[in-house]
Structure formats: C-alpha cells, structure tokens
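Subject: two folds for Thursday's group meeting

Dear M.,

Sorry for the delay on this. The cluster queue was jammed most of the week, so I only got both jobs back this morning. I'm pasting them in the order they finished. Each block is the input sequence followed by the predicted structure tokens. Could you check whether the formatting survives your parser before we put anything on slides? The first protein is the one we discussed after the seminar.
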Amino acid sequence: MEVTPFGIRVYLLVVLVASGVLLIWMARATASGRLKRNHFAGIRTPSTMAGDAAWLAAHRRTQKYTVIGGIAMIVSGLVAALPLTAWMLAGAVLLGSGIMVTCLIAGARIGGRAAREVIPPVDSPES
C-alpha cells in the first residue's frame, strides 16, 4: 500500500494541531471571562447571548468538553503526520473530527442549559 504524500501529512498536521490549540485557548478564554460575549467565537445560542452571566455560566460548564475536542484534534493531527496509507489517514482524521464535533454539540447543549439557569425568569402577565 502506498503511503500518503509528505506534503499532505504536514498540511494536516498543521491545520489539525492549530485547530485543536485554538479550541483549547478559546475554551479557557471564554470560561475565564477573557473572551467576552461576541458574535464570532464561543457558544452563540439565544440563551448564552442573553447576558454576560449566561455567557460565562455556559462556557464555564462546558470548558472540559471543548478542551477534549481540542485534544482530539491535536492527537488526530499528530497521527496524520505518521506515514500512513490514505485510508488509515482518513480514518484518523475522521475519528478525531467526530470526537471534536460530538464534544462541541454536547457542550453547546449543556452550556445552553447552564445559561438558562442564570437568566432571570420572565413573569407571565396575570389574566
């Protein structure tokens, strides 16, 4: 079986590791409050965007999921640097990406619940 070309392996290494590092940085920055509520990075749902307290609660609760997703991308990138066949390389990249997406979806759901816990309830009008 033919090994994947070196240039492709290096490209995947750089892209996947950089993506993982960025995810980990973002998880830590949003959970610590350094990365404030914004429209570009983080969990951006109606409940998390409702206020700063909701944003912070969501990201503190989901930090570990985002970090695990970032680690999965880094490991996937390191494996991609190995002299693997195209099928093995594709499997490694898909596995790492699948873990990352699963962690981010789970984190978004959990973060949304955490945000809703700190949003003050809206009183319903009495009839």
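Second protein, same layout:
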Amino acid sequence: MGNSMLYAVPATVISAFVGSITAYGLTIPDWKQSYKALVLALIIAGIFIPYQAVLVPLTQFWSQWAQLTDLLSFVWALGVPNDYVGIVELVVTHVAYGIPICTLLFRTYYKT
C-alpha cells in the first residue's frame, strides 16, 4: 500500500494543479476564440489515447532517451532511494495522462 500511495498521491496532486492552471488559461477571454478551440481540441485529443497502450513504451522512453533521472535530480536530493526510479517514471507518465482530463473538468467548472 505504501508504494501505491507513493505513486498515486504525487501524480494526482500534480495533475490537478497543472490541469487547473491550464483550464484557467483557457477560460480567460483575451485569447482569440479559434486559438482557444485549437488548444482545447489538442488537449482533449490526449484523453482518447489509451493509457494501457503506451504505459510501458513511455516509461522506457523516460528512462532511456529523456534521462528523467538527470532531469529530476531534485527528487533524489530529497533522499528518495534509487529503488524508486521506476515509480518516479510512472508518476510522470500518469501526470502526462492526467492533465487532459483534469483540464477538461476544471475548464467546465470555471465556465459555469
């Protein structure tokens, strides 16, 4: 249960935070309407990509090509053991898939 909490809590908090900021940016009336629609369509397109289809390849991408362990060196400075590198990669993947749905939900809330 501890590993599940270590994975779920940061991913949920980060997805909700970034999704709410993105949704607020999409509700500001300063944008042209066509640009808002285009950005929203691109974000919503992320909802339709099946999470299970790209979970393993995207996690491998973070570890092999993007060198996520180097980019997130501040996480290791907090004292997180090296055994949890895979969980950090899964959290980043889950955040990437959580942002579109959080953006859609928060935008709907902000528009009402």
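Two things I noticed about the second structure. The chain has one domain: 2-111. The two ends are 37 Å apart (CA to CA).

Cheers,
T.
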